[in-house]
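pipeline stage [seq->struct] | target=SseB protein N-terminal domain-containing protein | organism=Blastopirellula marina | residues=155
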Amino acid sequence: MNNRFDENHESPQAPMTSRTDEAATFAPANPLESALVESAAGRLEQRDFFEVFVQAEVYQIAEDAPQEADVPIFPIALQDPEHGRVIAVFSDPSRATPYETKAPHVLALTGSQVFEQIPAGHGIVLNPGSQFSLTIPGYGVLNLRRDFGIRRIAT
């Protein structure tokens, strides 16, 4: 389900259309995806979902392969019409398949590391284009950093 934070920084907002058919075809591949489905259905609180997210292994994609451990890669950023620049993050490598020709390199990291490394002003889109995705605008990233005690690491 495609969720967005509301302007009051509260809960993700679901679109007006029904996605029950999509829920039946989306098979969660890991605990993060199960939490995403449960959250979208209203059976898991937002804070509980993000507790799973910050601890989960997630994936970013990049055009260039990392050269050295201490040299940052530049993950794919997308332009969201409502929220500006968002960094694409995937809950499972298979969710990145539509982007593999543009960005064939996959980097595994934790959700917490995503929040540490995301550039100022950027948001996050989890599973862009998927049946179940979540967009976190830049102000949502700041709020989640505060709520979970995550500091941005300058790169």
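stage status: PASS
auto-comment: Residues 1-23 have pLDDT under 50 and may be disordered. DSSP finds five helices and eight strands in the chain.
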